[in-house]
Amino acid sequence: MSQTMKAGQVQGDWELDEGVRRLEPVERMDGRAAVAGGLFAVGATALAVVGSDPGLLSASAAGVAVAALAGASNRRGVKRQELHDHLTEQVCPVLGLSVPSRKAVQLSGWSEGFVGEPGKVTLVYPARVIPDAIWTGKVTAVVENSLGGRYRVKSLQERKHRLELERFEPEQAPQEEQAISRTRQVVGELLGDSAQVKIELDNEGEPARIQVSHDQGNAMAMANRRQRVQRILATRIPGEWQARWDLQQDTVEFFIRTPMPTLVFPPEEHSSTAVAHEAYQDFQVPLGVDEDGEVLTWFPRKQAHLLITGQSGSGKTVVQHNVAERLTQAGWRTWILDGKRIEFIGFRSWPNVELVASRLEHQVKMIVDAHALMMERYEKIEDGSATLADFEPLALIIDEATTFLKGVDRWWKQVKPKGAPAKPPVLDLMADMARLARSAKIHLVLGLQRPDVEFIGGEMRDNFGARVAMGRLSPQGAMMMWDSAAIGTAVPRHIKGRGTALNANGTPVALQTYLAQNPDPNAPGYDEKATEAVRPRELLYPRKLIEVLGSTQTDIDGDEVPLSYDDYMDARVYVAEDQPRVGGVVDPTVAAPAPSALSALQNLTGSKDKITPKPETRGGIPPGLSPEHVEEPLAPPEFEAATEGEFEGFEGESDEVGVLELKAGDLVLIDPGAGRWAVVQEDPEADAEDEVFLDLVDWSTGEPEGVSLSATEMVHTRRVLQEA
């Protein structure tokens, strides 16, 4: 076709208009009929009025009806012709025709409706065309695109050069297929079309886990890019998505962040006895449920000691109660240093809790004796008289360690022997046990109100392979616990039992701890039935007491002199007359352990002697001491309740800084009207487009947030307070 043909110049039934093929409109006969009917009606009406002829009025009405019907038919025909011509213009080039021809396209079988949709499309193509599957696919695609429906090949008559397509309603793709297709599309847009995607669906057919192998390693090396991908995915695919990136293998796993429960109860099944060496090696203490719905545990053989921090009311003591109940169910020999003197009252008569020390001098003796036991075991291993498998595990639970040490400092000044160092040796003994006790099968459970550099600074912290921080941490505490000023600083204050802990991979994760029972009958919310359900069913270690000494003694001259440190450390430890009742025993008068428990204990100790109170005890009170000595403990160490300011750990005044000046742990004002702040999770970086994606956690709710800002934008922040 000559490119010089002017617009409007007709050849056959088409024209060239600025390079676009267009068909000339077809004049329809029903349009003329509508006009004629209208003119007839007007004329008949006029004559009827002049001549008062009823017959002419009837003729006028008929003319109006004819005009209306013809007009409607004309409008529908025009619309159908427009569809026909549009398809003809689009499909003829694909059919192999150099010019559009209405003779090559026929539409029939129109559906109901004013215009309707053609149910059948008949196409005539040139003889030179070889109608293979690729060609018919292209033709079908053009027909579907032009008419807006779904069509398939009904027949192909190659001798007549005719292709017939029929309209059909496809079956709705299953929800699973739609979800998979949508997910692959989104991931491809974010991580490249070459990304290999594996999708796991939940019970409702929605994506629950997406595993991707990609070739975007260089781009994803920037934290800003990874955060952007994660946030965009969360906006386009339903669910709260989290990601685990493997930058070495160029893979990423997206998974749904299920809402964490706000209340979880310990497993009903008791911990199995784990005293024998093989059972000890596999023993784990369940602590709660993490953000992935997995049970998080303390594994003593691999994670030597457990550290638990938390302000008053955060749930720290509840975690310690759960640990104590699980250890004693497993038959572990358990010693408890009750720093507040009242938190472990219910464990003073609890199976396999051998000692509970509430008096300060008893607490010091407990540490000294545990250290001595550790050294004794080392000596036996060294001289070959025993191996680690010969020892039973010992758990030493130390609650309120900071308060305990402050009390020891004051007490040491009163009892310090001449020539002894100015500082009490207890902290050094605890540090020794943190380093060495695991190899003697002794494990520490240390409770602190807040992270303290004396206990979790450097090497000391590394020895506590299991760490739990209950409630919200200050940025400084988060640095000591997790090496990040952001992690655990936005734990919701209103959720009891919520904290942060190390998972099996050593990564800090959110944790909802188990609501353990307090076995103290006078404790608020005491539940006798629930307490009995967790009571150990075997007594392997009898309850013991530490001799209560007064503050003075009579010397050989008959003078009253103060007791020394060594006197308190030499206090006798003896078996109590009243022993704990084991689980399943209803009769409260039954105090003796079951024979099987005694046998197990005798097998462990190699002794055939019965476990009975020593003959020199009198009602549990050593000879020479009056009941008054038992009733009058030393003054308890001072307990300083921590007060938490609204912005504890942050600078007092907010500041306006550039977004790239922010650091992990800083607070950012995200809603000035509501006074909402969020914690920056990672140091921000600008991408190639000078945009910064801030990965945030709402400071009040703990929910993840994210926002993209220009690299030059200013934000209001409260900086992490830098300690001198």
Automatic annotation (TrEMBL):
Residue stretches making up the FtsK domain: 284-479
Span list, region Disordered: 607-628
Top-level taxonomic group: Bacteria
Keywords from the UniProt entry: ATP-binding, Nucleotide-binding, Plasmid
Record SUPFAM superfamilies: P-loop containing nucleoside triphosphate hydrolases
Name recorded for this polypeptide: Putative FtsK
Basic and acidic residues composition-biased segments: 607-617
Chain positions recorded as ATP binding sites: G310, Q311, S312, G313, S314, G315, K316, T317
Gene Ontology MF terms in the entry: ATP binding; DNA binding
